[in-house]
Amino acid sequence: MTNSALTTHRLDVDALLDDRKTKIIVCCGSGGVGKTTTAAALGLRAAERGRRVVVLTIDPARRLAQSMGLTELDNTPRVVKGVSGTGELQAMMLDMKRTFDEVVLAAADAERARQIMENPFYQSLSSGFAGTQEYMAMEKLGQLHADGTWDLIVVDTPPSRSALDFLDAPNRLGSFLDGRLIKVLTAPAKVGGRSAMKMLNVGMTMFTGVLSKVLGATVLQDVSTFVAAMDSMFGGFRERADRTYALLQAKGTAFLVVAAPERDALREAAYFVDRLEADRMPLAGLVLNRVHDTGAPQLSAERARAAAEALDEAPPGDAEQLAAGLLRLHAERMQVIARERRMRDRFASVYPNVKVADVPALPGDVHDLDGLRAIGSRLAEG
Predict the structure, then answer these.
(1) Full residue range of the structural domain in which residue 313 is found
(2) CATH number at residue 288
(3) pLDDT digits (tens, 9 = 90+) for 61-76
(4) 224-250 pLDDT per residue, tens
(5) At how many degrees (to 10) do helices 217-230 and 180-190 cross?
(6) Within this chain, do residues 92 and 148 fall inside the same structural domain, yes or no?
(7) Which of 30, 114, 205, 299 is the most core-located residue (most Cβ within 10 A)?
């Protein structure tokens, strides 16, 4: 992508943050591209521009919590101190089991909730079932949105193995709970009449006999007990999944795909862009993190190497050796910049209408609010 193309399709981050119609910003992308830092920087910048913001992050590095002046992050929003301006920033880290427990406690009476939460299958499901973290992130998003305390929610999505996991999450657990196995296991409780129950029990005995061999009798008993206790809640899971999916598609939601100027990261970003379009999700643009630049763009890699070789032929001296080394470093940097530009060009040729914000690489890690402000400023300059 050429510089002119980037300027033409520049993502105006401040306009997005200042638009009061923007209620939710979802930062998505593969792991290791600075997604969590981007979400925190956006939250801080929005707060310092007058918004009441909560950042929902997923398993952030400890240094990120420290950068916001917090000793820890947990499932409860905490006020971030040191924010300038009239806005307010709170931050929290998703605890997926606690969030699942909150759902159960809200939907069941005390005794039913106890039965569910003490069930071994539930404990496994709420702590490590495939897709549970993604689902509970969306469950928590729904809770925060319904609360109404904040006028902007910034979501840092889980680092998924696949670029598509996050978008599938709102329906995955609901589909599991609506699945054939669950329906069969709940059937005995829904059939009326002794004769019908007797006939069903014969079939169920044969069926559960097979399942016992596959799953093990103990696991099957745990699942059956869990299903019996959760039966009245299944519809609620489906309704919330549908509401969350609709919320993600709403005009007040903006998706930002976060990537680095590298082949694999941009390939993942392309998957996200395609999926967002296919699911009619509102894509605001691409944040391209850790982009390299130089203060001497007019000095090409070829000219820098040639100058370094000329200095090598001059009479040896400390100054000459230092200058030659710096020229070679500059040549290597220009090669990196050229490679990144080719990657951006390739992405832009396929997605010419996707707006982009370039974020130059910082010399070090972010460790305080000033570091997050620097990231926010670079995002705004794009």
Answers:
(1) 301-336
(2) 3.40.50.300
(3) 676 787 888 877 888 9
(4) 677 766 666 666 777 777 888 889 999
(5) 70
(6) yes
(7) 30
